Amino acid sequence: MESILTTTKGTCYLCQRTAHTHLHHIIHAGVSKKKQEKMGLFCYLCPECHTGAHGVHGTWGAERDQDLKAVAQKLWEIKYINEYPYENHAEEAAREEWMKQIGRNYL
Fold first, then answer.
1. pLDDT class of 83 with cuts at 50, 70, 90
2. Cα–Cα dist 107/68, whole Å
3. Which residues are paired to 22 by β-bridges?
4. Chain-centre distance of CA 75, in angstroms?
5. Does the pLDDT of residue 107 top 90, yes or no?
6. What is the average per-residue pLDDT within 34-50?
7. Which segments of the chain does DSSP mark as H helices, in order?
8. Other C-beta atoms within 10 Å of 96: how many?
9. Which phi and psi angles does 8 have, rounded to 5°?
10. 17 DSSP assignment
11. Percentage helix, strand, coil, to 5, in the chain?
């Protein structure tokens, strides 16, 4: 399993702090963890960035969570275009596949 984000266990993707990290699945509802792992939609987060008050699951972390989803979608679409090149309308094809797989546009 390889993330589409530059992330390594032990280093927080958001704050770059080296510490104990949690595996975070970027899309919270409606998409299985197994599917997200296959698509590379995960990263490692320190406890504060994951579940702290300003973390992606925290009381005041909604904007941070949305930003992470948008970055993941953009990187996934770029990877999709590179792996499955289309002569015309590559971006539209990638977005269409994202919507088919995830069901929501975060960009």
1. confident
2. 11
3. 45
4. 8
5. yes
6. 95
7. 33-39, 47-51, 62-83, 90-101
8. 12
9. -135, 145
10. -
11. 45, 10, 45
Q: Scan for tokens 């990638």, then name that residue.
A: 94
Indicate the residue type of 62: A
CA distance 70 to 62: 12
* Average pLDDT value for the chain: 92
Counting other chains too, the contacts that 23-28 makes at CB distance below 8 Å and 24 or more residues apart are: 24/50, 24/56, 26/68, 26/69, 26/72, 27/69, 27/102, 28/57, 28/65
- The residue behind tokens 């925290």 is 58
Measured CA to CA, the distance from residue 44 to residue 82 in angstroms comes to 24
Cα 35 versus chain centre, distance: 12
Q: Give me the pLDDT at residue 3, please.
A: 93
- Residue 29, C-beta contacts closer than 8 angstroms, at least 6 positions apart: none
The pLDDT value recorded for residue 89 is: 81
Assessment of whether the complete model's pTM goes beyond 0.70: yes
